[in-house]
Amino acid sequence: MGKLGTNNQEKLYFVxxxxxxxxxxxxxxKKASKYSRNLATGxxxxxxxxxxxxxxxxxxxxxxxxxxxxxxxxxxxxxxIHYETIKWKKEMQRIQTRATSTMNVxxxxxxxxxxxxxxxxxxxxxxxxxxxxxVDCGDFGHSKEEFKNIIDVAASWIDGEVSKQLKAPLQxxxxxxxxxxxxxxxTPGQETNQATMIVFNDEGKRIAVPVGxxxxxxxxxxxxxxxxxxxxxxxxxxxxxxxxxxxxxxDELSYCQGIVADGQYQSTGFRDELKKLLPFDFDxxxxxxxxxxxxxxxxxFSDLAFTDVREGKIGDSKEFxxxxxKRSNVFGAAFHSGKHLF
Length: 342
Fold this sequence. Notes:
Structural class: alpha+beta
Number of strands: 9
Order of helices and strands: EEHHEHHHHHEEEEEHEHHH
Low-confidence stretches: 1-8
Largest sheet: 4 strands, mixed
Oligomer: single chain
Radius of gyration: 33 Å
Shape: elongated
Number of helices: 11
CATH architecture of the largest domain: 2-Layer Sandwich
Distance between the termini: 70 Å
CATH class of the largest domain: Alpha Beta
Strand order of the largest sheet: 6-5-4-9
CATH topology of the largest domain: Nucleotidyltransferase, domain 5
Strand content: 5-15%
Number of domains: 3
Mean pLDDT: 81
């Protein structure tokens, strides 16, 4: 039973919703004109019958009840339309089940391409391999043009899950989890992009999730100047990207406890822009400052120091370092660099 509004007045009507949906579908719409004033299109409870029922009359009630029973049992009123609805419903369930299964295969193939760091043109080959093994891969969506759409949908879902995790208070502290950012810019193709990743703990394991890689350089309206690569602009681009992608409020950005970057990101302009964008009190002792400047992280620093010693630029341990490296290489040669051990 539902409500039907006509002329600013609501009236009650009886309708079998599956049959009504079938008549609104593409195959059922061609037959809708054959069925009128029945339970598939809706039986309006007019004022006369409503008043009769309120006064204790039950003839209309029993008549309507009989029509519903015969309709559902496919014995009389609307028997044909209800039977066709059942067949249409089963067919739609079969199509939906197959569509879900094939989409699962296509998404897994797309993710396999990403994990293997392969190009989009390898996506059809992954799908073809599964099809040759007897897997139902559907009838369309196999082109490399669909690869980007699948990845965009997967990335949107991942962003939603990350946003939920960043906003969910921890049970131990009641505060949101801390996170850090890392970024760098490069020119993999004709366009220079800045890649930003967010790092946080997931079930005790530190993971890094790509946030985005927008273009760095933009031109002004009259194409006379290029902007975007200044340190303050790089900082603003990354912070605003994280805020927009995960829908974080300004106070939620306070859980960002570090930014790992090098090169151009170590300048004063980058640091000053962070002071404007992040809700921190930067007027503290530099020793206790959250965003302190570090020219190199320990791995980079150790690698540079070790290289300088090995090349004889620092100290007198060049021969010792060379002997350690030579002896270490023996392990790789003895065990074939981890290959064919079993």
